[in-house]
């Protein structure tokens, strides 16, 4: 896992090459809306890409995390199924339902039943390298989602240029990122972590929480500013030094959200001694998002090492899948 995290910038470059060489059939039809369906490490890319496209896309891009797709899905909907293994049962069922509703279905996967479905039905799909934990291969699904959206005439940022520049930036900054991540991990050791993000970084905050869960075996939650100001902020009256607050920020944040984030840090600090504000770095929105992802991955790695836990261990998920398989 340590090697996979370190290789994130190289993975981005490799993913760009895969995207450039992918052969997608032109469907000659622009969708009226988009649904990206996927879960866990396979699905988080959809949440982050949807956030990044919010300022450019002229049609809605929604994210789905379950077995069913919304009833509004139809012939004018592009549904992108993202399953690293190709065997995620929720994503497979959602894909089948999308086809039943007449949607345009495309897929990002390394193989499995989703690859078989795509080939059998002649669906557009992009294959990515397999054999690793899904959470360690975010770079590949992230880039391919942009490629598919772009091919279906969904307005996206200049993802090729921005990702290539971001990869180079992350390589140049990696030693600094590792050092900063270690300092943050030391502050977060033995804490329950509340990860907050300004609007536009909600998917990144979820990624941080997922990495704390899987890599460091730590509980926590994530939320977005300003939504959490209308409910969760009150809950900090029950806070303590056992809980840490991390606030992810960016120069892209709304000026009023910036003010709220400043005030939140001060208010939360009345109930816990650990409030950490982290500002994204980079010359574009995509670069700033990828910087935070890389930093968060390294923090989870350091926390795992400090706890002495097995970063690769996901036995509880495997046990759950086995029980579900028995119930078929």
Automatic annotation (TrEMBL):
Isomerase listed as a keyword: yes
Family of this protein: Belongs to the PGI/PMI family.
Gene Ontology terms, MF aspect: carbohydrate derivative binding; glucose-6-phosphate isomerase activity; mannose-6-phosphate isomerase activity
Ranges where the SIS domain occurs: 24-155
The organism's place on the tree of life at top rank: Bacteria
Taxonomic path: Bacteria, Pseudomonadati, Bacteroidota, Flavobacteriia, Flavobacteriales
InterPro entries: Glu6P/Mann6P_isomerase_C, SIS_dom, SIS_dom_sf, SIS_PGI/PMI_1
Gene3D superfamilies attached to this UniProt entry: Glucose-6-phosphate isomerase like protein, domain 1 (3.40.50.10490)
Protein name: Bifunctional phosphoglucose/phosphomannose isomerase
Isomerase recorded as keyword: yes
Organism this protein belongs to: Phaeocystidibacter marisrubri
Keywords: Isomerase
């Amino acid at each position: 896992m340590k090697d996979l995290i370190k290789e994130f910038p190289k993975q981005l470059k490799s993913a760009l090459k895969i995207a450039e060489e992918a052969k997608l059939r032109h469907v000659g039809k622009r969708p009226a809306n988009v649904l990206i369906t996927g879960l866990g490490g396979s699905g988080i890319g959809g949440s982050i890409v949807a956030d990044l496209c919010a300022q450019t896309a002229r049609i809605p891009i929604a994210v789905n995390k379950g077995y069913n797709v919304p009833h509004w899905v139809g012939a004018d909907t592009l549904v992108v199924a993202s399953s690293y293994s190709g065997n995620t049962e929720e994503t497979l069922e959602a894909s089948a339902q999308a086809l039943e509703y007449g949607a345009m279905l495309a897929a990002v996967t390394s193989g499995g039943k989703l690859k078989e479905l795509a080939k059998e039905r002649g669906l557009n799909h992009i294959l990515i390298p397999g054999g690793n934990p899904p959470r360690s291969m975010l770079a590949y699904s992230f880039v391919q989602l942009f490629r598919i959206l772009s091919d279906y005439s969904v307005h996206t940022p200049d993802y090729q240029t921005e990702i290539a520049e971001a990869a180079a930036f992350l390589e140049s900054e990696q030693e600094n990122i590792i050092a900063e991540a270690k300092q943050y991990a030391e502050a977060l050791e033995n804490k329950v972590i509340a990860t907050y993000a300004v609007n536009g970084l909600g998917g990144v905050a979820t990624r941080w929480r997922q990495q704390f869960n899987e890599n460091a075996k730590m509980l926590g939650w994530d939320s977005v500013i300003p939504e959490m100001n209308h409910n969760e902020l009150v809950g900090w009256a029950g806070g303590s030094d056992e809980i840490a607050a991390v606030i992810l920020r960016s120069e892209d944040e709304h000026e009023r959200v910036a003010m709220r984030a400043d005030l939140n840090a001060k208010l939360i600090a009345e109930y816990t001694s650990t409030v950490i504000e982290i500002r994204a770095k980079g010359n574009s929105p995509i670069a700033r998002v990828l910087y935070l992802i890389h930093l968060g991955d390294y923090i989870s790695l350091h926390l795992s090492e400090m706890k002495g836990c097995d970063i690769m261990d996901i036995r509880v998920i495997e046990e759950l899948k086995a029980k579900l398989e028995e119930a078929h």
